[in-house]
Amino acid sequence: MDITYASSSLPDLVSSSASMSRTPLTSRPVKIIPLQHPYDSADAPLTSSSSSSSTTSFTRWRTKVKQMKTVDWIDFFLPCSRWIRSYNWRENLQPDVIAGVTVGVMLVPQSMSYAKLAGLQPIYGLYTGLVPVFVYSIFGSSRQLAVGPVALVSLLVSNVLGNFDSSSELYTELAILLSLMVGILECTMGLLRLGWIIRFISHSVISGFTTASAFVIALSQAKYFLGYDVDRSSQIIPLVKSIMSGADQFSWPPFVMGSFILAIILVMKHLGKTRKNLRFLRAGGPLTAVVLGTAFVKIFHPSSITLVGDIPQGLPPFSIPNDFSYVKSLIPTAFLITGVAILESVGIAKALAAKNGYELDSNQELFGLGVANICGSMFSSYPSTGSFSRSAVNHESGAKTGLSGIIMGIIMACALQFLTPLFEFIPQCALAAIVISAVIGLVDYDEAIFLWRVDKKDFFLWAVTFATTLFLGIEIGVLVGVGFSLAFVIHESANPHIAVLGRLPGTTVYRNIQQYPEAYTYNGIVIVRVDSPIYFANTSYIKDRLREYEIAVDQSSKRGPEVERIYFVILEMAPVTYVDSSAVQALKELYQEYTTRDIQIAISNPNKEVLLTLAKSGFIDQIGKEWCFVRVHDAVQVCLQHVPNPNDPPKVPDSSSSRFLERLGTQRNEDISASELESGQRDSVRSKDSDPHLEPLLSRKSH
């Protein structure tokens, strides 16, 4: 945009007022950038910001749909076609097969362990590790995410179904129904692109929740180590009481065996993480636990160690859930599991996609997880999602495409078809050791230390969620954590950051005077920046702060005429992305209030949508188009010309806007240079060669 020399707009204001100035104003012209008003262009119709934004979004979406070809539609519904078309058999086949076999061997024992955690028979964990894995490889957009049963979801299933007998057929049917509900919810949110809703849940809330859940999960597995039954609960106090009350029934053989297997798994995991040449040990831990436990049982036949027992052989039968009488009671857990899927699974998938150099649509990823759960529910699966540990192993093993997931599914199918007779002799304590070794990674104490050091508010969220989940249960813990998280969001939105700006010496840049103490302000002018949208929830707070700035005296150095009060308030609106009708009404009320005190409002750098809303509401016409500027500096220089001269006799404030403008127009009888305006002194000597009507207020060197 061209820089033009525009004279001050005050003479126009005075000439249009009811009473004319008695003395002509001879103030110097100011170099400003003209603001393009939306109603000055025939090509820019005056529409509301919300309708313009929605129309633009709809137009962009419709254009994109029209441009989509057949291949694009296939990629949209079958993301696997993207890597199938470009699959390099020589480079990708071997790492995909190795990764698939590695994670498949890890998945088989973990699936049985997580099924026991969910209160189900181990066979349903194997079913959950079969069909969803195949389906996700086709409909999922991540090429490294390993889908299947996970500890946290298994705990949620066990918690919501805690009032039912885990050995009953109804318990199993409800777990499968929950998988269908989660799948439908995930697909719906993916298709409607509603994944952004879960963003309101802070990561510190999820971290506190998973850390507390890890303790609950570990204690729930203690019964397999101790050799006696422990009450099932999602609260730590009942679990501890139950463990202590049955201490007289303690049996040392399962404790010793479980502890030994757990130690082996942890050592293998540590070596796999720290040494690249032993990376395969990380995935081999669960398989080693199962093999050692089974071998010990087959050799010594200990009577005090409980075994998994008979597991049906063969692939799962096809069946559709048909009992929907308990749907209403399962809805909260379905939402919670979906939230975990979005925050954890989609987050893992995005991180892996970035590491491997391809793009991933979170909503499409959510849709793929939903289809996997829906299809899984038709083959006796309970809810599944992406596993952090198995996905990490899959990535580290070199997985390049979704073929590794298909290999995992083949490994699981072979286990179901041929190996289930051997699973009968797996000790329960070995499966419990696998679960405990997995949930140890969920204890995120590093996050708590980081939050304490960086942000006490987020640490408070972490601590509250952790404590309530641990002592009051999963549902209450999540509700309290989410409630506090939303409360912080609302508080930050309703009490936005507002800064008083000052000019950095030697520049035309204006910054927060609290952050830049060297910045100076001008007498009679206050420059305020609102760092958020202005809407009904924060208008009252903003108005109160503006009144404070009018009265309070900042500690920054000041320049310009020595006046004792504020004559101009400049609103820097660059950070303001949106204003609603309540905000417009508040600005109008503020303008009327300022007018009674002879204060003029000026606005600087509003974006197009905000300017459209202010123009349509009549606010721009109310304050005058000449008080809208592109830059804060332009607004300051114009306002400086109209700040009253302290050497003139004091004027009695008048509530009439026209008399206020007339008084400002008669207060100057001689020109004031830029340096004189900043120092508050008049110049008695003027260059004969200078033309006051063409020279900018600031020299060219200052721009």
Give a short synopsis of this structure.
It is built from 29 helices and 12 strands. With 703 residues, it is an alpha/beta fold. It is found in: Membrane.
Structural write-up:
The protein is of the alpha/beta class. 57% of the residues lie in helices and 6% in strands. The protein has 29 helices and twelve strands. The strands form four sheets. Strands 6-5-8-10-11-12 form a six-stranded mixed β-sheet, with helices on both faces. Strands 1-2 form a two-stranded antiparallel ribbon. A two-stranded antiparallel sheet has the order 3-4. Helix 24 links the parallel strand 10 and strand 11. The chain is elongated and about 110 Å long. 44% of the residues are buried. InterPro entries: S04_transporter_CS, SLC26A/SulP_dom, SLC26A/SulP_fam, STAS_dom, STAS_dom_sf. Keywords: Membrane, Transmembrane, Transmembrane helix, Transport. It comes from Ambrosia artemisiifolia.
Helix-strand layout with pairing:
Elements lengths: L3 E3 L3 H7 L13 E3 L16 H19 L2 H8 L2 H6 L3 H29 L4 H7 L2 H9 L6 E3 L2 H10 L8 H23 L11 H18 L1 H5 L9 H10 L6 H23 L5 H21 L26 H30 L5 H16 L7 E3 H9 L6 H21 L4 H12 L5 H10 L1 H17 L1 H21 L3 E6 L6 E3 L8 E2 L2 E6 L8 H13 L6 E2 L8 E5 L8 H15 L4 E5 L3 H10 L1 H5 L4 E2 L2 H11 L14 H9 L8 H6 L24
Parallel strand pairs: 7-9, 8-10, 10-11, 11-12
Antiparallel strand pairs: 1-2, 3-4, 5-6, 5-8
The chain-level structural class is alpha/beta
Tell me, what's the shape?
Answer: elongated
Distance linking N and C termini: 15 Å
Q: Mean pLDDT across all residues, rounded?
A: 82
For the sheet with most strands, the description reads: 6 strands, mixed
Report the total helices: 29
- Strand residue percentage: 5-15%
Kindly state the number of beta strands.
12
